[in-house]
Amino acid sequence: MLNNKSKNIIFYVTLAVVFFVLALWFTGIPIAEINHVLPSGGDSLLVSYIWSWEMHQIPINPLELFNANIFAPFKNTLAFTEHMLGSLLLAWPLFLIFKNIVLVFNLISLGSFAISGLGMYLLANYLTKNKAASLVAAFIYAFAPFKIEHLEHINLSGMWLPYFFLYLERFFESQTWRNVLLLTLFISLVFLNAMQYFLFLPMIVLLFLIKNILCKTFKITKGNICKILTSIIILAAIIIPLTIPYISLQKNFGFQRAVENIEGISPDLFDYFVSPFVFKYYSPLLQEWVVGPGIFVMILLIISIFFIYQKSVDIKRTHIYFLIGLIAVLFSFGYYIQLTRAEIGGMIGPWAFFYNFIPGYSGIRAVGRFSIFFLLSASIIIAIGLAKIFQDKIKKNNYQIFYVLIILLILFIEFSLVKPKQYIPMPDRVNPVYSWVKNQKDANIYLEMPMGWNYLKENYDKLYDYNSISHFKKIINGYSGYAPKEYEKLNNELMHFDMGDIRLIKDYGATDIIFHFDFYPENFKKTTLEKLSTENSVELIYQIDNDYVFQIK
């Protein structure tokens, strides 16, 4: 006979597997091609590149980790976006097994739904002691529209957040070394996986601390101070070295997001009430506007809040999650609180204070992503409300299971209306020109043409990032969360290439130019090759298929 612990482990593993299988449905990934397709857009390519660069560089020289090969000749270029070290902890073992970064990306992407769902189930069940209500919360948090819309953003999955909340709750209930160290672990994982989410955590810890001190459920003792200081020392040892490159970025480039850029992609209050049904027929202009959990989730939330406050159920605990959700919504609006995008300006929100006075916040572009804390809070409140409804109104387990199945079915139908990303095939072999580049001198700096956004309206830099996995030589090109102004200026100048641009390219730092003529009209190739053949400042040193490499003299 299995003991309760073994039964629980089997149940948790089964739940994670079920959520993984459900993720196959919601993402729409072609299962037969899982090892050579990626979600459309550049971020799946970027994440694959970042993991590959880190697996390449850490064994060689981890101190040079942030000096990635992209955006040459600039230094510290990995800091132009999230470092993804948290998800690397999952990706690296899988890559050692499968030797396929595309397959690894898809497994981590799908697995993030399972990790998220399991974490929310554990958190909700800890708070409610009701498995049925916890399953609903887990399903909502795992597969809400925000999650499906951002499936290529591994860092936005929020997969470690429920575990952080779980051990924050456990810590304030019992200040054991186990709870302290596990809380420290999950704070670290949140930081390593998504620095934007990490910036929100100190506020949450402070709210929990104030609540528990006021409720006299936490005492400041020598033992507790010792445990907290130990946690802070461990976190500082992890966070400070990985934060320095981002501080240098802000100092060297004057890096700060403009308010108008933040406001341009921020959601408004109306977006929280947009049903996935709308997305089935009208794709959102920006995925950052997809913050609503769905109409049925909002109905469940309203019913749960009404029932909790009517019955005075777990008010103190509900208050903290209600407050966290409210702050997250206000943060997601950005600098100004707006009901609709038709408004110009608006009332200044709490985000403005953090933007101006708290380090790190001015570098965040997409503040709508803080809505995940609303999603998490809503899931918990719904679990608490349903648990009390089941306890008072629907006491028989069979009836509880029936109603939960109905709720899950409705949620499944509504979430299925979200249009998942299209998957695009990736090449099965390395482009021969990159095999040649791999054997060239490390001092060379390559400019690949065409650059990012050009008159063909195609961002090729994301492909160059990804393709550099095969050689890791320095390239001028780059696709990331930020680009230096000098790079953007060069990109604009080279939208319409002519011979006069060669000196500009040389002065920028390039030693070689790679023309990918498959990306150009045929007449451009003919005229460009004719002009380059008479140009004394360059020399054709390699050509294969439709790729030509010119050395700058």
TrEMBL record:
Record flagged with keyword Transmembrane: yes
Protein name as it appears in the record: Glycosyltransferase RgtA/B/C/D-like domain-containing protein
Transmembrane helix among keywords: yes
Annotated TM spans: 9-32, 90-123, 180-208, 228-247, 289-308, 320-338, 344-363, 370-389, 401-418
Domain of life (superkingdom): Bacteria
Source organism per UniProt: Candidatus Kuenenbacteria bacterium CG22_combo_CG10-13_8_21_14_all_39_9
Record keywords: Membrane, Transmembrane, Transmembrane helix
